[in-house]
Write a structure and sequence with these properties.
Elements (H helix, E strand, L loop, with lengths): L1 H33 L9 H5 L7 E4 L5 E5 L14 H11 L11 H13 L10 H9 L8 H21 L2 H11 L9 H9 L8 H10 L12 H17 L5 H8 L18 H11 L14 H13 L5 H4 L16 E4 L3 H27 L13 H13 L2 H8 L4 H8 L3 E5 L6 E5 L1 H9 L3 E8 L5 E5 L17 E2 L5 H10 L7 E3 L3 E4 L5 E4 L11 E3 H6 L3 H10 L2 H10 L18 E2 L1 H12 L3 E3 L4 E5 L5 E4 L4 E3 L3 H16 L5 H4 L11 E6 L5 E7 L3 E8 L10 H4 L1 H4 L1 H13 L27 H4 L10
Length: 781
């Protein structure tokens, strides 16, 4: 008996020793894990501030999110923005005892241990929501062996417990839903709700919330876009869990589980959506680096100078590189969750995009398609020889992405040209939609070159805030931005700057001058003669400057130019915001210099702003991810011309609309019949390669440009190639839509304000504009 007692004591002691040894080993194991002895562990600081990459949002003036910049497309939501049904679905499915444990669920632990020992994965997982969050917040490396898996689980337990100590249950759920990757660029619940259901998280219905929670098991497997039936089955599993734990009734389950997925997929794509050209301009501008001359080729020195001026004078240019977070690092546009509040109005932006696309699709491109039938080497003009055409095609080929890829593969020029001449299957842009076809890559170059491009920008006169920005007709296929990035010859839209100089020096709209040919002796001794493009009833007669500008008569502009020197005109243009290089030569009044639409809109705004140049701006303020305002922006303003000169120019430009080349805005049924005061100017460049229109109302200034990618692709007749036909309709369509929108503050009943003590007679005693017979030539370049 005594022997049996001693044996029992020995076994008991042995068991206690084993137990204590095991407990000690577990303590040592967890202590070692906590101290990072068995691999890297997050610090207390990391636990208090877990890193989540947040997308920066581009927000319109009327609070519409137009786009995002991201590495992970995540936007933060708070707990009070999460609907109860979403939280209930998550708890019922992933961790029904979530509110009862402190990061580790012992029942789940036993299931995991049993599964590891038996190799049976069907026993279920034991990861709590806190553990899953730990795995998402602090991912390490991939593990393969069971021992590595066990060690990883231990680490997750430790992190989960620490998370439970650092955060409330509500904060953990919020972090989980903000962190999870729902696939298809839907990172976090806010992006998922928007991308899969086109809604906000707080508006999710039960069946929608259940689908998203179901995806949390394995987004790649339960993908509603690729596997809708499988995803629906998984959604119904979530609903059954909600029924099991009394979050929904049986009747609710029966009705909800029968519903379709109801997916309204909104593909996240930087090339689509509202204002893509503007969003790309904003991205490149804010993330720009300080110009380094060594990075520019010799032929890019002008661009280097312009970028250097932008860096010094434009606070938005390189903003992320110029500004620092509290920790001393630069702001990152793609992960710091900035909210960029822009000046763009989403309604006006839509009207602008519609106006550009409708004009090109329904009016201009069909006319050019008919014109193409008359060309020998389409889409190039008939005055282009075969060698010139081949040179341009070769240049376009070398600028293509396909050429770059083939060159990188080691192909020589001959092999690449052969590749470009072999038919392949491809999808190409048409105004009727993307078309699947078979053609050679060289023919596809001709195809895209045959499409006209247009750009448009509108600015609020009082604030300088840009309300609409359209860099081209379709960003997916024509990515080059012709508002801020591209420059083209401006044609007769440059003439108001010359007339401004005249008004400053004592002339008035009613001043009469001879409408005769004008000759200039150039610096090399040759004689250049300025003449009108077409005859008028007023040739050889005395006419007013108002009539001359209204009808864009070159001989009148030439007479004005002879009264002054070209550099004086350049000086006026620079004061009014034109920073592109202008050659000070007599022919400059024909608009041969290349200028951006952005510059022209800002400069024309000076006329309606009583002579004060107001720089067009795109952003009002920027907030950090916590909602703190970290930057504000206001336009640069300065006196450019005196108020009286500005009003005289408004009077001259109103004549363009009421009796001159822009009079279509008064009578055309589609884009005309516009009421209220309008001042403006049409412009057409040599050979009708570029069409322009600049229009001003008492509240808005806007401009439009239209042309092909190459100047040798154009209409051959001025009736269709002039600015009044190429660009003016876009402005007309836009302003009609704006005036029709009663939610906007822009109305046709405002007036241009006359300066105090203005005594100049503007009622010209001249019937020239009455005697001028309307012709098909509404614009003379």
């Amino acid at each position: 008996m005594e022997k049996e007692k001693n044996t029992f004591k020995k076994y008991t002691l042995f068991l206690w020793v084993c137990y204590l040894a095991a407990a000690a080993l577990v303590f040592i194991l967890f202590f070692s894990i906590t101290k990072g002895k068995l691999g890297e562990m997050p610090s207390f600081k990391e636990l208090e501030n877990p890193q989540s990459l947040l997308a920066s949002e581009v927000i319109s003036r009327d609070k519409v999110v137009m786009g995002r910049y991201f590495r992970e497309n995540r936007s933060y939501v708070s707990y009070d923005q999460l609907p109860p049904q979403l939280v209930n679905a998550l708890i019922a499915t992933e961790d029904v005892r979530f509110y009862k444990h402190s990061g580790i669920d012992l029942r789940g632990l036993f299931r995991v241990v049993k599964g590891i020992l038996t190799g049976n994965s069907s026993t279920g997982g034991g990861s709590t929501i806190s553990q899953q969050l730990a795995k998402m917040l602090f991912p390490r490396q991939e593990f393969e062996s069971k021992s590595d898996l066990v060690l990883r689980k231990f680490k997750e337990w430790v992190i989960a417990v620490k998370l439970e100590k650092s955060y409330t249950k509500e904060e953990i759920i919020t972090m989980y839903l903000n962190k999870y990757d729902f696939l298809n660029l839907a990172v976090g619940i806010k992006s998922a709700a928007r991308i899969y259901f086109n809604t906000e998280p707080d508006s999710l219905q039960i069946h929608q919330a259940a689908m998203l929670v179901g995806m949390a098991k394995n987004s790649a497997l339960f993908n509603p876009i690729r596997r809708p039936e499988l995803t629906k089955d998984r959604r119904n599993v979530v609903l059954s869990q909600m029924r099991k734990y009394n979050y929904v009734t049986k009747q609710e389950y029966d009705s909800i589980s029968a519903l379709p997925l109801d997916v309204d997929y909104q593909k996240e794509d930087f090339k689509s959506g509202l204002a893509p050209y503007f969003r790309e301009y904003l991205r490149v501008t804010m993330d720009a680096k300080k110009p380094d001359k060594s990075r520019y080729a010799s032929w890019q020195q002008v661009k280097f100078k312009e970028d250097s001026v932008e860096w010094e004078t434009n606070p938005l240019y390189g903003w992320c590189k110029k500004n620092f977070k509290p920790d001393g690092t630069n702001y990152d546009l793609y992960e710091d969750g900035l909210k960029i509040y822009t000046t763009i109005d989403s309604r006006m932006q839509q009207y602008a995009e519609q106006s550009v696309q409708n004009h090109l699709k329904l009016e201009l491109q069909p006319a050019f398609e008919r014109h193409l039938k008359r060309l020998r080497n389409r889409p190039f003009s008939n005055d282009m020889g075969p060698n010139e055409v081949n040179a341009l095609l070769d240049l376009s080929m070398r600028q293509s992405e396909r050429y770059r890829v083939l060159r990188a593969k080691g192909m020589n020029s001959g092999q690449i040209k052969k590749n470009f001449s072999e038919p392949v299957e491809m999808s190409v842009f048409t105004w009727q939609g993307t078309k699947d076809t078979i053609m050679t890559p060289m023919d596809s170059i001709r195809h895209y070159l045959s499409y006209f491009r247009s750009s448009f920008m509108a600015m609020d006169l009082e604030t300088g805030q840009v309300r609409a920005y359209v860099g081209g007709p379709n960003y997916q296929h024509f990515m080059y931005d012709m508002v801020k990035g591209g420059k083209r010859q401006v044609g007769s839209t440059v003439k108001p700057f010359l007339y401004t100089l005249a008004m400053q020096n004592g002339l008035s709209p009613c001043t009469k001058v001879p409408n005769v040919k004008q000759q200039f002796i150039l610096y090399d001794g040759t004689v250049w003669e300025a003449r009108n493009s077409s005859p008028t009833d007023m040739d050889g007669k005395m006419v007013t400057l108002k009539w001359g500008l209204a009808n864009s008569v070159n001989q009148i502009s030439a007479w004005v130019m002879k009264q002054f020197n070209p550099q004086s005109v350049v000086d006026v243009m620079e004061k009014m915001g034109v920073y592109s290089r202008i050659d000070p030569v007599p022919s400059m009044f024909l608009g041969t210099s290349d200028i951006t639409l952005y510059e022209m809109v800002g400069a024309y705004g000076t006329f309606a702003n009583k002579g004060v140049y107001t720089q067009p701006i795109f952003v009002t303020h920027i907030e950090d991810k916590h909602g703190n305002v970290i930057a504000t922006f206001r336009p640069e303003r300065h006196d450019a011309i005196d108020e009286q000169t500005a009003y005289l120019m408004i009077n001259l430009l109103r004549g363009v609309i009421d009796t001159g080349t822009g009079r279509r805005l008064r009578w055309h049924k589609e884009y005309g019949e516009i009421q209220g005061p309008i001042a403006g100017k049409t412009g057409t460049t040599q050979n009708h390669s570029d069409g322009w229109f600049m229009g001003i109302t008492p509240q808005l200034v806007a401009g439009a440009w239209t042309g092909a990618d190459l100047r040798s692709i154009r209409f051959d007749d001025i009736s269709t190639g002039q600015g009044a036909n190429m660009a003016l309709p876009i402005w007309g369509h836009f302003i009609k839509k704006v005036y029709a929108d009663k939610t906007l503050e822009y109305k046709p009943d405002h007036e241009f304000e006359k300066p105090m003590n203005f005594l100049i007679n503007l009622d010209c005693d001249d019937d020239a504009d009455v005697r001028q017979k309307p012709t098909e030539y509404d614009d003379f370049f």
